[in-house]
Amino acid sequence: MAFELPALPYPKNALEPHISERTMDFHHSRHHQAYVTNLNNLVKGSPAESQSLEELIKATYRDTSKTGVFNNAAQVWNHTFFWNSMKPRGGGSPSGQVAQAIDRDCGGIDKFKEQFKAAAVGQFGSGWAWLVADGGKLKITATPNAVNPLAEGQTALLTCDVWEHAYYLDYQNRRPDFVQTFLDHLVNWDFVAQNLSKTR
Fold first, then answer.
1. What are the backbone angles phi and psi of residue 9, rounded to the nearest 5°?
2. Among 115, 118, 162, 165, which is most buried by a count of CB atoms within 10 Å?
């Protein structure tokens, strides 16, 4: 069965003024769609065609003969996760178990934001910043290109896309401003809570 482009969880203009409808259209309809199309072309007629994205990512990570499959499968998964990591009128501070875990492992929400922004801004070139659960604790990580926590055996809780196509139309080269806006106005803490609940 062919992989399909997942629908956005909100209208393309729902994140304005922080992310424009134009950016969302290019990012979802073109970039994300291209990864889906490429992946389908790469696995067509092979046993991999019947695997899930998660299975493909784990099976092809570090297999140099399957780099194309890994990159495209991971990017389909990463982008879907990114869309869900945001919501209209998001951002701010979490509550409940997420807040408790961030206080415990990151030193509070202000330090979390500082460390997450540093990871996102400091990622050289294309990549992702993540909040993950690893060994019962929260950690902030950054990964290059398509690499994600799933490939590394961690549980992803939140991500910010720092490939230039994620922000360049709206922020040009101001990645720090994009990441700060993501933290202040877009983070979907409910999604983080759902992901954290699966680790218990």
1. -80, 5
2. 162
Cα 142 to Cα 11, 127, 200: the distances in Å are: 28, 7, 24
pLDDT digits (tens, 9 = 90+) for 60-74: 999 999 999 999 999
* Short-list 12, 33, 15, 21, CA closest to 181: 15
- CA 52 to CA 37: how far, in whole Å? 15
Q: Look at residue 1 and tell me whether its pLDDT is greater than 90.
A: no
Tens of pLDDT, residue by residue over 77-106, are 999 999 999 999 999 999 999 999 999 999
DSSP 71-124: HHHHHHHHHHHHHHTB-TT--S---HHHHHHHHHHHSSHHHHHHHHHHHHHHS-
Both tokens of 110, joined, read 């202000």
Contacts for 57-61 with beta carbons within 8 Å, 24 or more apart? Answer: 57/148, 57/150, 57/151, 58/150, 58/151, 61/147, 61/151
Q: What is the pTM of this model?
A: 0.96
Beta bridge partners of 161: 128
What are the structural domains of the chain?
21-84 (1.10.287.990), 96-197 (3.55.40.20)
